[in-house]
Amino acid sequence: MLSTLIWLPIGGATIASFCSAKWARIVAILTSSAILFLHVLLLRQFNLGTGEFQFSENLPWLPNIGLNYTLGVDGLSLPLLVLNALLTWLVLCFDREVKERPRLFYVLILLIHAGLSGAFLALNTLLFLLFYEIELIPLYLVIAIWGSKQKNYAATKFLIFTAVSGILILAGFLGLAWVAPAPKPVFDYQSLRSLSLPVTAQIVLLLLLVAGFAIKAPFVPFHTWLPDTYVESATPVVMILGGVVAKMGTYGLFRFCVGLFPEAWSLLSPWFALWAGLGILYGAVTAIAQKDIKRMVAYSSIGHMSYVLLAAAAVTPLSLVGGIAQMVSHGLILALLFNLVGIIEKKVGTRELDVLNGLLNPLRGFPTVSALLILGGMASAGIPGMVGFIAEFLVFQGSFSKFPLPTLLAILGTGLTAVYFVILLNRTCFGKLDNKTAYYPKVLSSEKLPAFVLTTLIVFLGIQPHWLVTWSETTAQKISSRLPSNAIVQLINLQQQ
Amino acid sequence: MQAWIDTIWLVPLYSLVGAGLSLIWTPSITRKTGPRPAGYVNIFMTFLALLHSTIALVGIWGKSSQLFSLLWFSVEGLDFTFDVEVSALTVGAMVVITGINFLAQIYAVGYMEMDWGWARFYALLAFFEAGMCALSICDSLFFSYVILEILTLGTYLLVGMWYNQSLVVTGARDAFLTKRVGDLLLLMGVVSIFPLAGTWNFHLLADWAEKAEVNPVVITLILLGLLAGPMGKCAQFPLHLWLDEAMEGPLPSTILRNGVVVPTGAWVLIKIHPLLQLSVVAQQVAIAIGAATALGTVLIAIGQIDAKRALSYLVSAYMGLIFMAVGTGSIESAYLLMLSNALGAGLLVMALGSIISNNITQDLTLLGGLWSRRPISGLSFLVGMAGLGALPPFSGFWGLSSLYQSLQASRPGLAVLVLVINALLVFSLVRVFGLVWGGKPKQMTERSVEPLWLMVLPMTVLAGVVLHTPQLWTGMGLISWQSFADSWVLLLSTLVGIGLGAYIYLNEGIAKPIALPSRFIQDFFTYDFYTPQLYKFTVVGLVDIFSRLMYWFDRFFVDGLGNLFGIVTILGGESLKYSTFGQFQLYMLTMLLGVGLLVFLVFRT
């Protein structure tokens, strides 16, 4: 089952690369629909009662160096897999923006999908890293080929940053494998989890991994690749990039940092929480100063990913569920916002806040797109009734008892989020449309479809969050139960001194 | 009858269905059918809600309240339950909300005759109605926050109804952000009280507060957070500015806003009142804010020449009185004041709206002499005034007298303040009346007739309701003439207000506009204590400068570091390539130096 999720898109990509552009599209649509269907099956068969890995697969590959093809899914990876499948499906089925070299585009998107699924499923640290790095190649290409003006700069920057992140993670995993008291290096996740390492070694390795994943997510101050990359990428690419690819960083944080180094994590978590709180404020404040709507949405992402860091720092079951929910909700909302911003840019021809005006106009503007943009912005600002609120609220409630001050900073951050989204909406949707220049092409309903699908999910999961949180409850309990209690942490602290 | 009570949660859904149905009227369909059907659908749904809640009110009348919970979802042992309290009070609030919205919607049929945005407008009114009805039966702090926050978004959209005017855009923005400040502090309170109390249910919170032992500093901070939400909603100092700017929205929505939307904050405040006993500081803050707002806004109202703004500040003032009432624990008077405000303030907006709608202007200095032409509106305005000010036997008196009496015993200073506020409130209303209906007709008012019956009918119906409210209260045993004997001073203050107002504004002998001897003081009130400027130079300016500074830091320092690294690498490579000049001896020397360094480092110790 799980292997299919990785190899089906690769197979689809292979077939598509031998077809004509028209057939490649059909193959891509069929493959992505099949993948989505498989994920629905996965959701149906997933056992909510256990926090263990399910549907596990294990094939020896290079057992001598400890590299095995081990896959498994639990409540942490499942929501992200489904998000990945959904966004890929939306991009492949409804995208009309990519006119040049469409075949290559479909192939690359399918390969990215496969790489992401592989990374989310891998239960061997080397295998994870393999997928993590391989997926860089198609990503680099989609940014560099279909981006806008400064695409090469952006793609290279993205590549370098992520490669550094990969090196740090590799160093962490190798160190972990060697430190482990075993005859052969250990890369198997399950075995690594049962290790007990000296705290000092844990801290060193943990810091390496955190730095690596912090670049990917990204958290301040490792975020500088993000605005350039997001802004220069084409709309479908940035939907995948912001929607799922960045989630690999936070996924790694939950899976490997919290999962493998419980003692070191609880020692350092107060600092991580503070980092998260400040990062949220930093992201929000810098977003306020933006003059370009795509860049503003890109900056919004910096702060919103830090909520996940806060959730990870607190490691209560509630905060972990909230963190996972926040990954999904951020993926949906960011994809929606980038999609709408992309439509506006395409039709109006500008992204400048000072030029855009009055798009809510029912006759010459884009009333539906603007209405959805208002909804998306408000969802991102954490207005109840939409999925962003409940995810953030669970993070806040879960983290407050452990880290009150960073949580209050985070709540302040949602307030500032509202500030820049109101700026964006006021300039873009409200105001008077200039009758002389407002001869925009119509927005086709096929262009609006992905936005409708995402909006439906955002509202539906906001009204009934049960369907979002239920998947990860037992997994969250399991992760948090491995953490030492406060008394032990204090003891370790004393010993350190 | 019990079936109507058990299904009371349907009431918010009626109007939500109406709002949903309005979505059908997209621009293209509106071009075919016209905008009106969307409005009629919503009026019908609101009527159903009114009917249901009225029948339920009859059913629950005299019975004890019924509590039940609906589980929303539960995660990791944390249950999110929508707790419902069905009592005569909560259902009565629903009747008031649906009733006023029903009248406001009919009024809007007349007022918004020429508007094309009916679907959006009525959907938003229905949205508000649904939110407020849900709030009135809601017995959970968490869901109260959720509803207040959603209504904040509603305010943004409703004020921004006519979004192509620049004042509307800034008004909508300010309304949203100001209320959001309050809501976020409320959220902080909601998040932080749970670990202490273990519940969000208002009844359980009240039980907890009875015997809670908590750190006084912590609980004071939490309570201040909880107070901030109602402060934002009720437009209290220093979050009062939005209500004035919200007047840029359509007038029929102002009926709803002034009457019932703004008091939602006071409703939540009353719900959290049992917690206030945990902190004297929080109580005093509530009283101080209420008193300062009531006095300040009533003075500002006197300085306004915009008819709608002159009324909006009075709502802030009335809410300030409720803050004082809750702070001093006089809950009954808070409820009486709330109902007086719902009916009285709503009626005042209707009466002035009927003038604005066909005299084109809302500038008080351009109006005048309408008594002979617009007596029905004038009478309605006077009834509305009697509904707010302390003029027995009308409804405004009883709430104020109840507050006055409770303060007289405990805090005589505040009781005197209530007298002053009442006098000023009545004075400001007489001022508006004098400027609009008194004097001689001016250019704008020369030809003026009562508007379409669709506006006159709801106005007169509401006037009738205002006039009958005291009778209702007497029937319920809430008021007695005894209290009149105890608070006759209040009547005196009203008479002073009326007398002074009438002397100045119904007197042809005094030239208008009235100028105070000091221009500075007059401007101080007219320009709202210069609060907009204060905001601009403090909070707004700070965020603005700070965000630019951080962005600059982000680009030139954080990003610059990365770019610097890149440039150094490239330059390093570029310059090092010239070291490749093929001289074997130099390569050898470099290697030897390197090895030597290594050997030195290894064997140093």
Q: What does the model show?
A:
The complex is a heterodimer of chains A (497) and B (605). Chain A is mainly alpha-helical and 497 residues long. Chain A has 22 helices and 2 strands. Chain A has one domain. Helices cover 73% and strands 3% of the residues of chain A. A two-stranded antiparallel ribbon of chain A has the order 1-2. In chain A, strand 1 and strand 2 form a beta hairpin. Chain B has 605 residues and is mainly alpha-helical. Helix content of chain B is 75%, strand content 3%. Chain B is built from 25 helices and 2 strands. In chain B, helix 10 runs parallel beside helix 14, helix 14 packs parallel to helix 19 and helix 16 packs across helix 18. In chain B, 54% of the residues are buried. The model of chain B has no long low-confidence stretch (mean pLDDT 88). Classes of the chains: A mainly alpha (497), B mainly alpha (605). The interface between A and B is large, with 65 and 52 residues.
List the SSEs and their pairings.
The complex is a heterodimer of chains A (497) and B (605).
Chain A: H1 2-17, H2 21-45, E1 54-62, E2 67-73, H3 77-94, H4 102-121, H5 125-134, H6 136-146, H7 151-179, H8 189-193, H9 199-216, H10 225-232, H11 235-245, H12 247-260, H13 262-288, H14 293-314, H15 317-348, H16 367-380, H17 387-400, H18 404-428, H19 445-463, H20 466-469, H21 473-481, H22 486-496
Chain B: H1 2-6, H2 10-22, H3 27-33, H4 36-60, E1 66-75, E2 78-86, H5 88-111, H6 118-137, H7 141-159, H8 166-197, H9 202-211, H10 216-233, H11 241-245, H12 251-261, H13 263-276, H14 280-302, H15 307-327, H16 331-359, H17 375-388, H18 395-410, H19 412-437, H20 453-476, H21 481-486, H22 488-505, H23 519-526, H24 531-576, H25 584-603
Antiparallel strand pairs in B: 1-2
Helix pairs in contact in B: 2-4, 2-6, 4-5, 4-6, 5-6, 5-12, 5-16, 5-20, 6-7, 6-12, 7-8, 8-10, 9-13, 10-13, 10-14, 12-16, 13-15, 13-16, 14-15, 14-19, 15-16, 15-19, 16-17, 16-18, 16-20, 17-19, 17-20, 18-19, 19-22
